[in-house]
Specification:
Helix content is about 30%, strand content about 10%. By secondary structure, the chain is of the alpha/beta class. The protein has a single domain, classed as Alpha-Beta Complex (sialyltransferase cstii, chain A). A seven-stranded parallel sheet has the order 5-4-3-2-1-6-7, with helices on both faces. The longest helix is centred in the first third of the chain and has 21 residues. The termini are far apart. About 35% of the residues are buried. It is a single-pass type II membrane protein. It holds the Pfam family Glyco_transf_29. GO terms for molecular function: N-acetyllactosaminide alpha-2,3-sialyltransferase activity. Keywords: Disulfide bond, Glycoprotein, Glycosyltransferase, Golgi apparatus, Membrane, Signal-anchor, Transferase, Transmembrane, Transmembrane helix.
Length: about 375
């Protein structure tokens, strides 16, 4: 008996669907592989990074005069290459910091869990939570993060660095005596106890002192500094620490730990380690500062970043004679993965690298 054509068609269709299901279930094909996923790397960045502005950004910024600050430029370009980016995190902790659930779920350095009491005490003493009225009121601000690399030496970038609205310096990197290359302006200096300037006379006349807390002990240390109390013990620190910070409480800030969390787990892709500090999952302070700037600055530049391990006799830092060969494998940082992240930002034009140390000739 011959089957009706419609019945033949239905049986054939069912067979095709069954075979298709088995083929798909076996993992030999992936619908995602045909679309969204193939355009991005595992961190969520576009694989194609050529610095080309999306059409909507070309229209938005194309008519601005040369040299004019571009409002929202860094965040717009970051979102264009990393769609998961959201500009939501303020630079410093303020009395409303508990509204950010993402930092409440983690211990330092990735959050504030179990540290709320001491943070509340510190914030009630400092009473200031921004960059200052003049800078905070700007509709568009440019920022530069000045790294400590020896690549800064003899570049004569000092004046150009000082032209930025916000100049960010890291740890104890000196200014005095190096103004020609690194500038003389410091808006904020981000550090932790072991990295802070220890000789009070080396501090700038004016700047904000910003703590990046990598452990609970760092916040306890800051309490001594804020209240100008004598530090009785340095147990628990991995090297000597500053015992006095010549700043008024109103000039002291606590860096939002969200930037450490985002840089580590999302942007660089370091091990999560159940949300705790562990081997190779702490970004460098430079990467943290860049992440902070992407959220809070309209244009972002860097200088003094990048280590060239092919030149072992080159100076490691601009202010001392230690050579590049002194770099050893870091227990906490993953320099190679961090460089991959920074190269993406430079290639896509999200940040400008004035000393060219991040990519070398590779961008």
């Amino acid at each position: 008996m011959r089957m009706k054509p419609s019945r033949n068609f239905l049986l054939g269709l069912c067979s095709m669907l069954a075979l298709g299901f088995l083929y798909y279930s076996s993992g030999r094909i992936s619908l995602r592989g045909w679309g969204h996923k193939s355009l991005y790397d595992k961190q969520g960045f576009f694989l194609k990074l050529d610095g080309t502005l999306p059409l909507e950004l070309m229209y938005k910024y194309g008519n601005l005069s040369e040299g004019a600050c571009k409002p929202g430029f860094a965040a717009a370009k970051m979102t264009a290459i990393y769609p998961k980016f959201t500009k939501l995190a303020p630079m410093f902790l303020d009395p409303n910091y508990k509204r950010f659930a993402k930092i409440g779920d983690y211990l330092p350095p990735f959050g504030v869990k179990l540290q709320e009491k001491i943070i509340d005490i510190l914030l009630s003493a400092t009473k200031s939570y921004g960059l200052g009225e003049e800078i905070d009121s700007m509709s568009c601000k440019t920022c530069i993060i000045v790294g400590n690399g020896g690549i800064l030496a003899n570049k004569s970038l000092g004046q150009r660095i000082d032209d930025f609205d916000v100049v960010v310096r890291l740890n104890e990197a000196p200014v005095k005596g190096f103004e020609k290359d690194v500038g003389s302006k410091t808006t904020i200096r981000i550090t932790y106890p072991e990295g802070a300037i220890q000789k009070t006379e080396r501090y700038e006349a004016e700047s904000l002192f910003v703590l990046s807390a990598f452990k609970a002990l760092d916040l306890k240390w800051l309490r001594y500094m804020v209240f100008n109390q004598r530090l009785r013990s340095t147990d628990g620190f991995w090297k000597s620490v500053a015992r006095h910070v010549p700043r008024e409480p109103s000039d002291i800030r606590i860096l939002n730990p969200y930037f450490i969390q985002e840089a580590s787990f999302k942007l660089i892709g370091l091990p999560h380690n159940n949300g705790q500090m562990g081997r190779g999952n702490i970004p460098t302070l430079g990467a943290v500062a860049i992440t902070m700037a992407l959220h809070n600055c309209d244009e972002v530049a860097v200088a003094g970043f990048g280590y060239n391990m092919s030149t072992p006799h080159a100076p490691l830092h601009y202010y001392e004679k230690i050579r590049m060969s002194a770099i050893k494998e870091s227990w906490t940082h993953n320099i190679s993965k961090e460089k991959e992240f920074l190269v993406k930002l430079v290639k896509a034009g999200v940040i400008q690298d004035w000393t060219g140390g991040i990519c070398g000739a590779g961008c």
